[in-house]
TrEMBL record:
PANTHER family: NADH OXIDOREDUCTASE HCR, OXIDOREDUCTASE-RELATED. InterPro entries: 2Fe-2S_ferredoxin-like_sf, 2Fe-2S_ferredoxin-type, Beta-grasp_dom_sf, Cbr1-like_FAD-bd_dom, FAD-bd_FR_type, FNR_nucleotide-bd, MRET, OxRdtase_FAD/NAD-bd. CDD domains: fer2 (cd00207), FNR_iron_sulfur_binding_2 (cd06216). This is Flavodoxin reductases (Ferredoxin-NADPH reductases) family 1. Pfam families: FAD_binding_6 (PF00970), Fer2 (PF00111), NAD_binding_1 (PF00175). One of its GO terms (molecular function) is oxidoreductase activity. Residues 291-373 form the 2Fe-2S ferredoxin-type domain. Residues 42-149 form the FAD-binding FR-type domain.
Length: 373
């Protein structure tokens, strides 16, 4: 039997599991086990939606209860600021994308994601519009390095725009649970007031903790509350709300253009700066021509365009490959390369190590390649 069959907590002996493992067909086990409980599984990490709440006019927060197969429960717990792959079956096909945790570290092991409905986003619109309490989602391991250190000290500034608020909200909640041990200012941009998430909770945290200040910055509406202002990110707006930038450790998160502007305005002036963008940066180089790419496992050789991501080029040839964020963050599309050279599409760097791993979504071929596919 699987540990997931004991949600109250009694984990079966690993020795028994090892003994019966050769007799178990996971797919068959999962089929019958799911009839008893939706998240019982031999080895698949799954989560049931146990809570749903509107986060803004175009976003929803889903509270998830993972089963015991999820690495975020079995090993190192998922941390505020990290992301994970979420998968749902839509029209019979599994669709997976990367989402930030908006809450982590709960005593009950539950986690939360806050999903903004994106125009043309198949999974985001499904989760926003159709996902309901009781539905089961597939989970990947938590990943991401922009997390709070084990010992938090100094003065901090969080800068967010759009969906970039989600990992920073998780970290704000973590610090609030610790009594807000350091001074923290959060500057949060949105186009309109109704697109802001967590407004009342952030105001409650600010009221409870003098060390915390939040300011809501609107780009298409005029301010009407004391904690609101208007305007896009620029030096004067930063200086108006943060008079000690040189003493601040800064985390920034949001769309690629916003993060690039934040980096240009803040990185050289702050004590430390780290950022994550939710859209990929522009390509650094455009190559032309084609190369021969050999797939070692299948023995196929394909002619692929240079300058196009290997993931996109291989999918155009009919290959169905695992992928997630498609921005080089989640490692879902990582693949072994035994020979040839590739170029990172965002930095322009060429990598010619004979045996290495590469993310197919952000690398293109610059010579003939042999891939472990």
């Amino acid at each position: 039997m699987n540990a997931a069959l004991h949600p109250a907590g009694h984990r079966p002996r690993s020795r028994l599991r090892r003994l019966i493992a050769p007799l178990v067909v996971p797919q068959v086990f999962d089929f019958w086990a799911s009839r008893l409980h939706p998240t019982w599984s031999w080895e698949r990490p799954l989560a049931r939606i146990v809570g749903r709440s509107e986060a803004s006019a175009d976003a929803v927060t889903l509270l998830l209860a993972p089963n015991r197969n999820w690495a975020g429960r079995r090993h190192e717990p998922a941390r505020a600021g990290q992301h994970l792959m979420i998968g749902a079956r839509i029209d019979g096909a599994l669709v997976s994308r990367s989402y930030s945790l908006s809450e982590a570290g709960r005593a009950d092991g539950r986690i939360a994601i806050t999903v903004k409905a994106i125009e043309g986003g198949k999974l985001s619109r499904h989760l926003y519009r159709d996902a309901r309490v009781g539905d089961v989602l597939e989970l990947g391991p938590a990943f991401g390095e922009m997390t709070l250190p084990a010992r938090v000290d100094g003065r901090w500034l969080f800068v967010a725009a759009g969906s970039g608020i989600t990992p920073l909200m998780a970290m704000t909640r973590q610090l609030a649970a610790q009594g807000m041990p350091v001074p923290l200012t959060l500057l949060y941009w949105a186009r309109r007031r109704e697109e802001l998430c967590f407004v009342e909770e952030l105001r409650a945290i600010a009221a409870a903790h003098p060390n915390f200040r939040v300011r809501f910055l609107l780009t298409r509406q005029e301010p009407r509350a004391a904690d609101e202002d208007a305007g896009r990110i620029d030096a004067s707006l930063l200086d108006a709300h943060v008079d000690d930038l040189a003493a601040r450790q800064v985390y920034a998160c949001g769309p690629g253009g916003f993060v690039a502007n934040a980096r240009g305005l803040i990185e050289a002036r702050a004590q430390a700066f780290a950022a994550e963008a939710f859209t990929p940066p522009p390509r650094a180089v455009e190559d032309t021509g084609t190369v021969a790419v050999t797939l070692a496992r299948s023995g196929r050789t394909l002619e692929l365009a240079r300058g196009e991501s290997l993931l996109t080029a291989l999918e155009a040839q009919g290959l169905k490959l695992n992928s997630g964020c498609r921005m080089g963050l989640c490692n879902t599309c990582s693949c072994g390369k035994s020979s040839g050279a590739t170029r990172h599409l965002h930095t322009g760097d060429v990598h010619a190590e004979p045996v290495s791993s590469l993310r197919l979504c952000v690398n293109s071929a610059t010579s003939d390649l042999v891939l472990d596919l």
